[in-house]
Amino acid sequence: MKLTHSLLCAVIALSPLSVSAKEKLRVYAASSLTNVVNELASQFESQHGIDVTTVFAGSSSLARQLTNGAPADLFISANEKWMTYLVESNVVAGDAVTNLVENKLVLVAPTGSAESFELTDSSQWQRALGKGRLAIGMPNAVPAGIYAKQSLEHMGVWSLLNKQLAPTNNVRIALTLVERQEAPLAVVYQTDAMLSDKVVTLAVFPEQTHDPIVYPLATLNEKEATLEFARYLRSESAIKVFGKYGFDSGNVRAD
């Protein structure tokens, strides 16, 4: 049977091949946001019918990828330095950046370790490390490592410890080294420590000893889906999810 031109057009119009694909978003985010952003992305997908692809790595690595043209719609950094870098590189517009959440820095050891630690006590650091190394994000690039170096310098123990470092490309790797007992100590975010039952928190680094641990969010285009996801991340429901994972949203107003 031959199809008339009008009938053929109708068949094509109704064909599954003609149905437009779901709109897609690509979100680049710091490694320490892996669990919370994946949960929020899943919720957003189910509510808005928009596919969200998440890419996690160290903030420095992601920022460099973006300057080289990596396709992303939103970026969440683990510190302001790398967001400033993107603004100064004309990759991100200054008015497209807003602070999202905050975090704390902690010292962790394998579960079963003594749960008391004086961060300014050089002899205690030496006993705890022994011949092992302190797992830490690379202090010249990875935000967690940058904050850790600032704090340890402030407390007068950096010159001792920088000879026994195990620098990592992101904070999650530092956590993993302690979980596997390949390092006796690690400096990680409070939110990372909360996710693991294989580590114990020995001490919280005083906030006044390092720059504020702020996670700025940037929208990289004006697509409606991009702006909608950015609004969602600042919503009351999203703030509750951030809080569940240990992030502080106290200074963030819900949209």
TrEMBL record:
Listed SUPFAM superfamilies: Periplasmic binding protein-like II
Q: Which family does it belong to?
A: Belongs to the bacterial solute-binding protein ModA family.
- Which InterPro entries does the entry mention? ModA, ModA/WtpA
Which keywords belong to this entry? Metal-binding, Molybdenum, Signal
**Annotated signal peptide:** 1-21
Protein's GO biological process: molybdate ion transport
Which species is listed as the source? Vibrio sinaloensis DSM 21326
Can you name this protein? Answer: Molybdenum ABC transporter, periplasmic molybdenum-binding protein
Q: Origin, by domain of life? A: Bacteria
Q: For this UniProt entry, what's an example GO CC term?
A: outer membrane-bounded periplasmic space
Q: Does the keyword Metal-binding apply?
A: yes
GO MF terms here are: metal ion binding; molybdate ion binding; tungstate binding
Query: What Pfam families does its record include?
Result: SBP_bac_11
